[in-house]
Amino acid sequence: TVVMYTDGLAEAREDTQLFGEERIIKTAERDLNAAPGVLCKTLLDAAKDFAGGVIDDDTAILVVRRD
To answer: How far apart are CA 46 and CA 65, in angstroms?
Structure first.
């Protein structure tokens, strides 16, 4: 499974704190076996929740899995 994302995901903010790569990794690891679309939604929802419901930067997430 490969997860690619734009900086909007990592830079989602709660005040001055960033969502960051560590939170992205922890979130992805929890649902790594989920369908790619589910994993994308999980990551986006986690970043939005962290940022109080709004991400100010454009965000794209791509999950690719080879079976």
So the answer is: 21
